Amino acid sequence: MSNNANKAADANKSGLKSVFTIAAIVLCFAIGWAFYHFIFGAAGNFKPDGSPANIMGAIHEGGFIVPILLGINLIVITFSIERAITITKANGRGNIAMFVRNIRSLIAAGNIDQAIAECDRQRGSLANVVRAGLVKYKLVEHDNSMDKETKLQAIQKDLEEATALELPMLSKNLVILSTLASVSTLVGLIGTVFGMIRAFQALAAAGAPDANALATGISEALWNTAFGIIGSSIAIIMYNVFSSRIDAITYGMDEANFSIVQTFAAKHNG
């Protein structure tokens, strides 16, 4: 019953996080639209003849793709901050490598209670997984109704279940960053193409070559590329940073789990 209750609680948390994700994305696009129309599109950013008076006015002239790119950049920043907070909490209070070494030495010395206390001090995803395995270790160690293999299977099962609960939380929303790393550049290029089309159409309508008009149109169009590259660059960097930190946590889990199982097997050999 407790396992079912935990799964139900995790499902509810997952549902709430999904709602937060959707709401955050919608809000970012809404803020991007508001910035485009009310900040960059303010009357003070344009000359009396309607031409841009400053950079913000030039950005506004980039067209309807600009608010989309602003929204994408805000989404990247928002979920980078969200992942940074989540993964920092998942790391716990101390160094992961030091924590794993301490746990391995405590388990080898048979100090299971002290190892559990160390997990309580460390906290985080790794500590949660290790603690689950240690609690099961302590429960089955002196259970005469189970043989050695059954005990090992019980410990491994609890470790695997705890790991399965923690890992999705670590990698959640990373797919958004990886997707936007590609999409941001493509959207920026689309905006640039539309801007170039408008620039050449205006040049053709003038009836005579107008280098200034062409240069202005190209400059306005390239703002789309700039925003697209900025969003893509941030997304790629943050995705790689978070992936490496998750890999470190996952490696720590594997190392600690292996130590727990192997120590139990060695102490109960025969």
* Separate helix tally: 9
What ranges have pLDDT less than 50 throughout 5 or more consecutive residues? none
Mean pLDDT: 85
String of helices and strands: HHHHHHHHH
| Alpha-carbon distance between the two ends | 34 Å
Largest sheet: none
- Class per helix and strand makeup: mainly alpha
Give the fraction of residues assigned to helices. Answer: over 70%
Give me the Rg, rounded: 28 Å
The gross shape turns out to be: rod-shaped
Number of domains: 1
Q: Based on DSSP secondary structure assignment, what is the total number of beta strands?
A: 0
Beta-strand percentage range: under 5%
Characterization of this structure:
This protein is mainly alpha-helical. The protein has one domain. It has helices at 2-39, 55-60, 65-91, 96-108, 112-122, 124-141, 148-171, 174-206, 211-267. Helix 4 (96-108) runs antiparallel to helix 5 (112-122), helix 6 runs antiparallel to helix 7 and helix 8 (174-206) runs antiparallel to helix 9 (211-267). The protein is rod-shaped, with a radius of gyration of 28 Å. The model has no long low-confidence stretch (mean pLDDT 85).
Feature tags:
single chain, rod-shaped, mainly alpha, 270 residues, 0% strand
Outline the secondary-structure elements.
Layout: H1 2-39, H2 55-60, H3 65-91, H4 96-108, H5 112-122, H6 124-141, H7 148-171, H8 174-206, H9 211-267
